[in-house]
Every structure is written in C-alpha cells, then in structure tokens.
Amino acid sequence: MAAADSSLSDNPRTFSRRPSAQASRQAKATKRKHQASSEAPPAKRRNETSCLPAKKTSVKETQRTFKGNTQKTFSPKKHSVSPSDRNQEERPCIKTSSLFKNNPDIPELHRPVVKQVQEKVFTSAAFHELGLHPHLISTINTVLKMSSMTSVQKQSIPVLLEGRDALVRSQTGSGKTLAYCIPVVQSLQAMKSKIQRSDGPYALVLVPTRELALQSFDTVQKLLKPFTWIVPGVLMGGEKRKSEKARLRKGINILISTPGRLVDHIKSTKNIHFSRLRWLVFDEADRILDLGFERDITVILNAVNAECQKRQNVLLSATLTEGVTRLADISLHDPVSISVLDKSHDQLNPKDKAVREVCPPRTGDELDNFAIPESLEQHVTVVPSKLRLVCLAAFILQKCKFEKDQKMVVFFSSCELVEFHYSLFLQTLLSSSGAPASGQLPSASTRLKFLRLHGNMEQEERTAVFQEFSHSRRGVLLCTDVAARGLDLPQVTWIVQYNAPSSPAEYIHRIGRTARIGCHGSSLLILAPSEAEYVNSLASHKINVSEMKMEDILCVLARDDCFKGKRWGAQKSHAVGPQEIRERATVLQTVFEDYVHSSERRVSWAKKALQSFIQAYTTYPRELKHIFHVRSLHLGHVAKSFGLRDAPRNLSALTRKKRKAHLKRSRLWKSAGFAAGAQP
Ligand SMILES: Nc1ncnc2c1ncn2[C@@H]1O[C@H](COP(=O)(O)OP(=O)(O)OP(=O)(O)O)[C@@H](O)[C@H]1O
Predict the structure, then answer these.
(1) Contact 486, 212 (CB under 8 A)
(2) What percent of the chain has pLDDT over 90?
(3) Residue 665 host element (H or E)
(4) Where are the beta strands (DSSP E) in 404-446?
(5) Ligand 1 within 6 A of 489 CB?
(6) Residue from 143, 174, 286, 315 to probe ligand 1 pocket by mutation (most atoms less than 8 Å from CB)
(7) Residue 592 near residue 423 (C-beta atoms within 8 A)
(8) Where is this region: Disordered (predicted)?
(9) In this predicted structure, what is the pLDDT of residue 343?
(10) Terminal Cα-to-Cα distance of the chain (whole angstroms)
C-alpha cells in the first residue's frame, strides 16, 4: 500500500499568512530540491489558495515549514479496502510528511481553578408524600421503578400542583421531565368532568427536537397507564402530515410537539383547538424561546391566547438565563422561580447553608454559572490541527475498542462533518479492526460500532438510530447539537466535543448527556492551540476542565498493531516507545489519506466537509471571535485533518460565494444555540 505524500500539507499558507514573493520563491526552490531528491513521484499539485486575505509570513517561517518534509516511508498494516482502493495499493510508495513537525507550540494551560456550582440530585422524600392519586404513585413505583424524588421534583411538583406558573432550573439529568409530567397527569386525571378524547389538548408541551418529543411522549404514556381515557400524542417534523392530522382529528389531550410542526398544523389543520388548554410547558425553554424559534413561538402563543386565557405555564431548562426569564415575562403569570442550587456549595452565599425550598429569582451573574453534575469529570486536550483526526480516532479506539462497555457521543459542528467522519471511520477504523492483532482481546475488534445522528437525515432513520443507541450498551454516536438537548441516553460514559460549542450553555447541555441522575461520566473537549483560551472562557462560567495530554491519547496506538510501522512489522512483541507511537500515528493518518485520495469523488467529498468546517467556524458569536477566528486556522494543517494532502485550491471562491447565505442561516441557528447545520 502506498504511503501518503503529505508534504504539501505542511504548506505554510494559512488564512492569516501568505509568504512574501521572496519567501515563496525560496519555498518553491526548497520544494523542488526536496522533490528531486525524492524517489517518489510528485503526487500532488501545489496548493495556492488562501481562503481570506492573508498577512505575510517570514522567510524563516516558510523555510521552517518545508524543512520537515523528508520523512521515513511507512506502510500501514494491511487493512480491508474497497475495490477503488486497490489501484492505490499498486501505486509506488510516496513519502509521508511528518505529522509532528512544523506544528504550533501547544500552549501551557493556565486554567484558573474554579469552584463549580453544584446541586444535590436526590432527596429522601418519597412520591407518596405528595398526595398523588394512588394509581399514579404505584405507576411511578412499579412502571418507572422510582421511589424517592429528586431535588427538582421535590421542589417543583407541590408548586405546580398549587396551580402556580413556574420557572424551573436544575442541572442536566436531574429529573425535570417528571417534575412537570407528574403534576400534569395528576391534575388532568382529577378533573371533575372526565376528559374526553375529542376535547382536544388540555396540555401542550413544546420541545426543541423530534427525539426529545418522542422521549417525553414515552414518559407521559407510561404515567397515563392507569388513566386510559387521557390520550397523549406527539407531533414532529418528518412524520406523515396526513396521519398526524387524522390523530389530531380523533383528539389528543396531552400534546407534545416541536414548534415548527405545530405551527404547520395550526396553519393548515382546522382540527386543532386550544379552548380547553390548562397547561403550556416549554421544555428546554432557553432553546425554545431563543431567536431560532421566535417566529414559531409567536404563532403558537397567538393561537393559544386567542382561545384560552387561564392556564398554567412552565419553563424548564438546565440553563435558564436572564435573557430567557425576561422573555418568559411575556408568557408567565406571577411565576415561582425554582432552583435547586446547593447553597452549601454556593460561594456567593457561603454562610447561607440552608437549602431553601423555592429560591427567589437569581441575579444575572448567578444565572450565568450553571450547575454541573458532581460525578462528571471534564477534560480538555490541545491538539495541533494536523493531528486532530488521528487524535480523535486514537481516543475512540482507546475507549471503545480496548475498553469494555463504553458508550460515547462525539459532537461536531455540522451535518456534513458528522457524515464525513462517520463514513471515514466506518471505512477505515472498522475495517482495520476487522482482524484482531496479536495480543489483542478477540472481542475487542467487534466492540467498535458507529452510529450517526443529525438534522439532514430521514426521520425514520433518525428514530431508528436514536432507539438503537439508547438501547445499546456500547457504541460511538457521531452527532450535531441536535442530540445536545434533553436526550436521556442511558449509560453514556464519554462525551467528546470535537468542535467547540458556541456558548457555555451548549457546552453544559452537550456534556449533560452523561453523568445523569447521579451516574459517573466523563467529557473531553478537543481544542487547537489557537483555541486554548477557551478554557478561560469556560472558567469564567465556573466550568472546570482538567488537561489530558495529546501524547497520552496517542499512546493507545502502542496497543493497536493494525497501525504498526513497516520497519517494526517483523518484530514480535517489543516495548513501544514514543518514536514508534509517532510512526503509528503517521500510519493511521496514512490510512485516512489513502482512503480519501483513492478516488476523485472522495477527495471532493473531503473538501466539502472541510468547507463545512470553515463555514461553521465563521459563525462563532462575537464574544468568542477572538478565540475562534478563521484567520488563525492553518488551511494546509486543517486540510490534513480531513485526510487531504493539501489545502483545496478552489475553497476560497466557494467559501465566499456560500458564506453570505450560510452566515445568515447559521446566525439564526447559532443564536438559538444550535451548531451550524444542525436542524431539529
Ligand atoms: N425520582 C427519580 N428516581 C430515579 N430516577 C429518576 C427520577 N426522576 C427521573 N429519573 C431518571 O433520571 C433520568 C434523567 O431525567 P430527565 O431526562 O428528566 O432529566 P432532565 O433534568 O430533564 O435532563 P436535561 O436537562 O438533560 O433535559 C431519566 O432516565 C429519568 O428516568
């Protein structure tokens, strides 16, 4: 198999730097010399593009960039290849440039250690203390198998049963769904005139994504087991409108919906009436009331207000901010603000040890500091762009191939990025894991399982993937922020953020897919050296991350003989040192590059993914632009993390053309807390 010639990926062109004419001439001369002395054919064209107007690069820097190109040739251990890969195998070996040279220095992380805000998850109070209908209590105990309440449930349920509006904030995975579902079911089953199916909605629950709609529907359905006359129903995009219309016509009493789909029906279906509505619930309220859904929410509130004036309104989220509470003023009447912040951990009120049942609304500063589950270990690693792909792959292998029962969610910033990495990993990591190497547990090779979830998938597939990953004991789910909110995926052990989120709130929701309801979990945020300051930004919101060294992640390659360098091939077991780990990392990168470069179609697919990455990068909000700015990206290095041997030539033109339209769209999404391309 040919090793990849990646010499041009060390191309000094970045978004911010363009070599002077002299530097450029010297670079060309250096390169010609390098190519002449090489036995390898010049496999690639020169990269002459820069996405954005660039600054100058010093001669020294340019020379330094080209110096690292004469490297050893490696040949990855045979891995299964598709027919189109076979041509590649017959090509003569070409030289592989170093992944480890010409990288920017990894800065020391001077992270301020902050004391995180914490909450107590469980209480000793039992559900039967609430005076609920005995059948509801027995359903909670026997069907849901729960006996004691969580803190948020203990505080919210009595307030909601009193008939008050409420703003509920508690950490991810603390049981907010039941905190509103139990009072809704209790109050509806107790209504004097028994509810008829044809009455239509008595409760409307709005959630931001289809998967969350399904999940909440499932919970409501379970609680309604003894109360068969109350009919729950779900409306969500992607389902057949006609069958939804038919269900609406028959009657749905507890309606769970995404905003967009409900607006669809309000506009086109005559069968939806809100005259009997008693409850309006906004789950993930900060997301729902944000700009992305503004128009839909206005339509819904107008429709609801036109028919019903007196109802209870509930807003819930792990990240209710002041902005949301202000918006909430429009829809809430004299609300109670519920927060389960553990005052014994609250630095702002160190003397106030008493956990108040219902806290008064908090100040802006307090609202910006989100509680994080105590059992969640957060890590960050700083990785040069060239090594990002290899590092992510190594981390996945370490956890999901060599350790048992690991379930991982990896977040990307766009649908295209999810698709790209999903296909790439399926075709490379999975096939290279096919043959168990010596010393490797036989079952390890079968442990890797990849799934993907994003807003551009057909609904049927989305639902199937969500169900499969939910019920699976292991696997890697690659996804956009469509999976960041509210999803209760059992036993997720690791959250990886390959692209940094656009706000601390989104960071909280992403990592909140693990360590739920008191379980243990871990997270890893992968940053480029130029993004290291993001750690301080997190610290300013009382988010504490500890550093994991890139070298420690790559170390797993010592255990994976699939990526053994050629020169070590004949040797039996031997201690694998740092040099060999670097070589194995290069072999792994070569596997990716070979796959991407095995056909024109794949090259253009990788370019599109790269372009999508850059477009998403331009949409970070203003307050993060000094950390995430396209000008600080080294295009050649970033290209390598897409298995491309150079930076694509026509990227700038394409980027400029699409940028305007994309910016408009993604600003809307971003402001609504979603990553670019992630659509609910
Ligand atoms: N009283 C309880 N006892 C045991 N488990 C519970 C209890 N209440 C809820 N759970 C479980 O805890 C998990 C998390 O609950 P839920 O999804 O409602 O959390 P959440 O606070 O809404 O999280 P997020 O903020 O991420 O949406 C679920 O699996 C749920 O079944």
Answers:
(1) yes
(2) 59
(3) helix 651-671
(4) 407-411
(5) no
(6) 174
(7) no
(8) 1-101
(9) 56
(10) 42
352: phi then psi, degrees, rounded to nearest 5: -85, 90
Q: What is the largest CA-CA distance in the chain?
A: 91
Q: From the CA of 518, how far away is ligand 1's center (Å)?
A: 10
Sign of CA dihedral 42, 45, 48, 51: negative
Asked whether the CA dihedral 487, 489, 494, 499 is positive or negative, the reply is negative
Query: pLDDT band at 574, cuts 50/70/90?
Result: low
All structural domains of the chain, each given as residue ranges with its CATH number in brackets, are: 118-343 (3.40.50.300), 375-431+448-562+576-659 (3.40.50.300)
Between CA 677 and CA 680 the distance in angstroms is: 10
d(CA 308, CA 365) in angstroms, rounded, equals 36
* CA of residue 345 to ligand 1 center, whole Å: 22
493 within 8 A of 522, measured Cβ to Cβ: yes
Closest residue by Cα to atom 20, ligand 1, is: 173
Whole-Å CA distances, 172 to 93, 359, 647? 51, 18, 40
| Mean pLDDT of all residues belonging to the chain | 79
Residue 119 is classified by DSSP as B
Highest mean pLDDT among 69-83, 185-199, 262-276, 556-570: 185-199
Position 479, amino acid: C
CA 311/CA 332 separation, integer angstroms: 10
Alpha helices in 239-345 (DSSP H): 241-250, 259-268, 285-288, 291-307, 322-331
- What ipTM is given for this predicted complex? 0.99
Closest CA to 146 of 164, 163, 167, 121: 121
Residue 272 and residue 306 in contact, taking contact as beta carbons nearer than 8 Å: no
Burial of 575 from C-beta contacts in 10 A (0-12 / 13-18 / 19+): exposed
Rounded to two decimals, the pTM is 0.81
Residue with tokens 């590059």: 593
What per-residue confidence (pLDDT) applies to 660? 57
Host H or E run for residue 56:
strand 55-57
Residue holding tokens 């409307």?
A: 204
Structure tokens at 258: 């995404």
Look at ligand 1, atom 7, and give the residue with the nearest C-alpha: 175
Residue 271 — very low, low, confident or very high, per pLDDT cuts 50/70/90? confident
Query: What's the one-letter identity of residue 353?
Result: K
- 157 CA distance to ligand 1 middle (Å): 14
- pLDDT higher at 25 or 166: 166
Q: What percent of the chain has pLDDT over 70?
A: 71
Tokens representing 424 are: 């790439």
Contact (CB, 8 A) for 170 and 371:
yes
Residue nearest to atom 25 of ligand 1 (CA): 172
CB 375 within 8 A of CB 521: yes
Kind of pairing between the strands at 450-453 and 407-411:
unpaired
What amino acid is encoded at 505 in this protein? Answer: A
Average pLDDT of the segment spanning 23-29: 40
> What are the tokens at 523?
């997270």
Report how far residue 394's alpha carbon sits from residue 589's, in angstroms, rounded to the nearest whole number. Answer: 11
Give the distance from CA 355 to its chain's centroid: 33
pLDDT greater than 70 at residue 572: no
Q: Give the tens place of pLDDT for each residue, 294-326.
A: 889 989 999 999 998 789 999 999 998 766 766
CB 123, CB 148: distance < 8 Å: yes
CA–CA separation, 70 and 60 (whole Å): 18
Q: Which residues contact 49 (CB under 8 A, 6 or more apart)?
A: 13, 635, 647, 648, 649, 650, 651, 652
Please give the helix or strand (H or E) that residue 668 lies within, else none.
helix 651-671
**Cβ proximity of 151 and 120 under 8 Å:** yes
Ligand 1 midpoint to CA 366 (Å): 24
The beta strand positions in 177-294, using DSSP E, are 203-206, 232-235, 254-257, 279-283
